[in-house]
From TrEMBL:
UniProt-listed NCBIfam families: spo_II_M
UniProt entry tagged with the keyword Magnesium: no
TM helices/strands, residue ranges: 23-45, 89-109, 116-138, 144-163, 175-198
Protein name as it appears in the record: Stage II sporulation protein M
Length: 226
């Protein structure tokens, strides 16, 4: 029973990926454009803006060094809440005909934020910044980004189905697709809870392990203590 069900799920996922291949490529490229644009913005910051961000980083590193960051459970609530709100918004936008451009904008902004954060760390802290980004930003986003892209693509696909079946042909069933889209969004929400747990409980531990081994970050901590 279970092997057959697993095989059906695998076949369904494979068919979905094949049918929406071009849409996945488009959304992934849009996300990467956001990442690139975010790194470009870093080079456009004036010295005062960079100084302000560096001061904030120094304060954050000091708080992390002294174990004064938010309690893991509080951080878990905030991280998970933000992720689930985004998934919920993508789901709602996918149910509307006019939601497609907003979905694309959200994916672009997600890439922009990641690109800017990693780009600023690398720009200011060189290899130390890259190493810190690898343990603080990349791990949870290995869950978050694919999840957002999957829900975004499925939402866009459902919106296009609405346009074809309700606005153009005025016929065709949409309820099965609605149920599938909703179940997928719920499943992705579970993955985001896992990502929130990693972000709250594992990432701070990894960041604290990195701090003593990065010369730039250690010097920033000492400067912020003065």
């Amino acid at each position: 029973m279970f092997p057959n069900k697993k095989a059906r799920w695998s076949q369904t996922i494979h068919q979905h990926m094949r049918n929406q291949k071009s849409l996945y490529i488009f959304v992934a490229v849009l996300f990467m454009m956001g990442v690139v644009f975010g790194t470009v913005i870093v080079n456009m910051l004036d010295p005062n803006q960079k100084s302000g961000l560096l001061n904030y980083l120094g304060y954050f590193f000091r708080q992390l060094h002294e174990d004064q960051i938010a309690e893991p459970f509080v951080a878990f609530q905030h991280a998970t809440g933000d992720h689930l709100k985004t998934i919920g918004l993508l789901w709602i936008l996918g149910l509307s005909v006019i939601g497609i451009p907003i979905i694309l904008i959200l994916i672009f902004i997600k890439g922009l934020v990641i690109g800017f954060t990693v780009g600023f760390l690398v720009n200011q802290l060189s290899w130390d910044g890259l190493w810190f980004a690898c343990v603080s930003i990349v791990p949870q986003n290995l869950f978050v980004v694919p999840t957002f892209i999957i829900v975004a693509v499925t939402g866009i696909s459902f919106s296009l189905l609405l346009i074809r079946n309700r606005l153009i042909h005025h016929r065709g069933a949409i309820y099965p697709s609605f149920v599938s889209f909703s179940l997928l969004a719920m499943g992705m929400g579970i993955l985001l809870i896992v990502a929130g747990g990693f972000e709250a409980y594992i990432s701070p531990w990894l960041m604290k392990k990195v701090l003593p081994h990065t010369s730039w970050i250690s010097s920033m901590i000492h400067l912020s203590l003065k």
